[in-house]
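Box 3.1. Reading complex inputs
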Amino acid sequence: MPHESGFTFTAMKEHYFDDLKVGDRFKSESINMTEKQLIEFAHKFDPQMFHLSRKSAERSIFKGLIASGWHTAAMTMRLFVQTLNFAEGAIGLGVAIGLGVDELRWPRVVRPGDVLTVETEIVDLRASRSRPNHGIIRLRNVTINQRGEIVQTMLASAMVPRRAAKQRASKA
Amino acid sequence: MPHESGFTFTAMKEHYFDDLKVGDRFKSESINMTEKQLIEFAHKFDPQMFHLSRKSAERSIFKGLIASGWHTAAMTMRLFVQTLNFAEGAIGLGVAIGLGVDELRWPRVVRPGDVLTVETEIVDLRASRSRPNHGIIRLRNVTINQRGEIVQTMLASAMVPRRAAKQRASKA
């Protein structure tokens, strides 16, 4: 197992496909999920009683306000993007086969004031056949709260740029 | 195939688990994805060059501004929630096995001004063992744009309330 010593802070360093190895792990910065943000997100995107207000949430099976899972997912994307910081972006959409997200799960609720951190592990790397200047990464993102409890897990496949793209392109 | 005549508009009608059958289909209202919303979402949750501004997006492989896939996913949740309108909410998080989202894909980009609609199909229904007052629904959500092109697909499993929960609980 590589990196047994734990996660590496790499925020802001620019990454390319070529910099990564299977087993590489990264840890994001942390961010506070405020009550105001939770309620604002819910009004825009997930208007259900346990997300919208303290009062309505008290009557739900969660006995209090919780974040929309999509808010946790969106915040996870922010933390992931800031950490891996791919030179021209990480692309999870498009016609390439298999890009996207699998097994998105929310094992525990996120409550106002929780502080989230994302741990990323590279689980697979492969060249892109259709776009030789890019590679496809498969990764696992685990989002934890301030108590180290897992609040979200997912697998994702994204297309990211290769460092030596221009050189290879001119040889081809 | 049930409902060959197409989708049924059911926005605002309150739903329970008991109201649904495998094969039931629903169509949401439509919503415009404005450039302002796209950029605002990107700054909060997905700060990549092809989401953040027209100028930076012009230089990307998308040759222009596109929505974050997570923005499309969040907007899909809003349209879905408004359409199915479960009495006490649809719960995709928690300890129940298999709740969450699978195979989240974005086959086409969403651009400023695109108008999104969500088509929901119920693909499975089962009782909840741990919570007899709830059932588990498995559904496919397909998000389409104003040209009928698919911009997002997903499978999701959620826990939703049963209509006759109180009666059953008292007999048990």
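In summary: The first strand of chain B starts at residue 8 and ends at 9.
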